[in-house]
Structures are given as C-alpha cells and as structure tokens.
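Good morning N.,

You mentioned wanting to compare the apo and holo forms, so I went ahead and generated the holo version with N,N,N-trimethyl-histidine. This is what I fed in:
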Amino acid sequence: MNAAIARARAQAALTDLRPKPDDIAADAINGLSRTPKSLPSKYFYDAEGSRLFEAITRQPEYYLTQVELALMESRMPSVAAAVGSGAHVVEFGSGSGRKTELLLEGLEAPVAYTPIEISRTALMDSVTRLGQQFPEVEMLPVCADFTGPVPLPPASRHVQRTLVFFPGSTLGNFFEGDAVRLLASMRGTMGENGRALIGIDLDKDAAVLDAAYNDRAGVTAAFTLNLLARLNREIGSDFDLDGFGHRAAYSRERMRIETALVSTRAQSVRIGERRFDFAQGEAIEVEISQKYTDASFAALTVQAGLEVIDGWNDAEDRFGLRLLRPR
Ligand code: AVJ
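and this is what came out, ligand included:
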C-alpha cells in the first residue's frame, strides 16, 4: 500500500470532533471575563503543548510518570487478572503511549483500542505506533474533547467488556463537579459490565509536590506559557509572553497544586473586539492538579455511581492505580 492510500485509510478511520477556533475563542473570552480570570487547562495540549508535556515527564522532579510506569511494569499481571480477557480499551487522552503499550501487552487478548484525544497529532502518532505493535488489536481512534459525550466506535470482533483507561492523574485537572461528571460519563461509556483503570497522584509532602510543578529546567513554566502562545496562534489574541509568568503552589487545604499565569505588569490583551485589562500581579488561573487520599477518591467515585474494587500503589505510596466498576 502506498503512503497516500495509507494516509487516506488512517483518516477514514478517524472520527474528528476537534474543537474549532470559535469554540476556543468563546472559552477564552468566557474565562477572562470572570473574577478571578481563568483559562481552561484542556487547551494546553496542542502539538507544542503535548511535546512540552512529554519533556515535563522526563524532568527529575516530575515523579508522577516514572512512578506510574514502574507501577504498571510491576503490577500488570495483577491488573490483567482483575480485568479479564477480550477487552475494548478506551483511553481518555492518548498519553505517552508507553503506558498503553504496557496495558495492551499485559492484558489477555484485548480486542480493540480507542484513544479519545483532543490533539490530532498526538492521537495519530499514538495509533500509528500502537497499530504496528499490536496488529491483532483493532485501532478505533476518536479525535474529540473527552469532557463531552463521545460515541464509541463499535469493534468488529466480540468484546467481553469495555475497559476505560485514564492514567496520569489527569482526573486531577478537573474541579470536583467536573471530575464527577467525567467519571459518570466513563460509567456510561463502560456499561454495566465495564471497568475503569484510573491513575491518581496521592497526597504527600508539599515540598515534593511544589518541586514537581516548578522544575529547575523551567519546562513546566514553558508548558504553562505555551497556553498563551497557542491562543495567539489559533484565535489571534495578542498576549505578550514576556508579560506573564508561571506560578504553581500546593494548597494543603484544597489538597491540590494550583497553577496560574501572573501578569508581571499592568497591561491589556485583545481577543477580537474584546479587551481584557490586567493589574500588575493579577493571576489567570489555568490549572489545578488534585491530589488524593483513599477516602477522598472513594467519595468522588461514589458520587459518579462507581466503586473502587482494586488498587495498586508504589512502595512509597506516591502514586496509585484504581480499578472501578459501576455500583
Ligand atoms: C498530565 C494533567 C497529569 O497535572 O500533573 C504537569 C499536567 N501540568 N505539569 C499534571 C501538568 C504541569 C499533569 N497531568
């Protein structure tokens, strides 16, 4: 098969529900009209943002990815036994691909794989690689914002159960109400006999958490600032990247890292016809990274009609995998 045909086929299999520039502009205007100002963290992940996030996962301070990978490397047999054979794996986001490799490798005869991913490049890279590596697993990618309802492409072979996979503690980027809605929508996607395997960052020492979101090389700062660069590229806003700085700090009270872009001076920013004024030191809230205890996570899942039936932590209880089912 020649390259053009291969590309056409890959595109034919892709369900494209990508956000349009108008949606992004509307979300940005809405967030910047609030007090305090905010921008949705889901827009971090354009091609450049996804590349920068990959770089974060290689920083020594950012333990989350290394620990979760090691956990999957050592505990996959136990996870596979709990999940059973013939699964349609549905991943919310398409991640680094390595965790997915460990999952598809470790599960017994998985039938199909559906990544749901907002970044089209990340999505296509992931299914191209995984498709070659797992020729027996049907690749059914969906390009969409997974915070909305996403119809699941049906597998052509018989599926024993749907397994939703949501690693990386990405759930932590959602405020409680949104996290519950997302978990409830996963419950809908997985069906009565389904399961979800979710990675969660566990609550710990503030200094360790602060360091993870303020790496010395400044990659996290570049990642945060790319949000403004992306808006400039895609919706024609005129954020001056030198006029904003990255700030991430752990709140013990709310058990989460709170990330903001802080205006270094009084300035105004234009999006289309709209103008937004910033005071010196004024923050745009851009991301939360929630940390969990067993109690706080159980409380969240119960609200979504799910229950934790199994779990695996690393030896130092830094990071956990939890297996959920409808209750
Ligand atoms: C990919 C959402 C889990 O919140 O830890 C990393 C994103 N932001 N450093 C996280 C992120 C800043 C990350 N997640």
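The longest strand covers residues 244-251.

Happy to go through it together on a call whenever suits you.

Best,
F.
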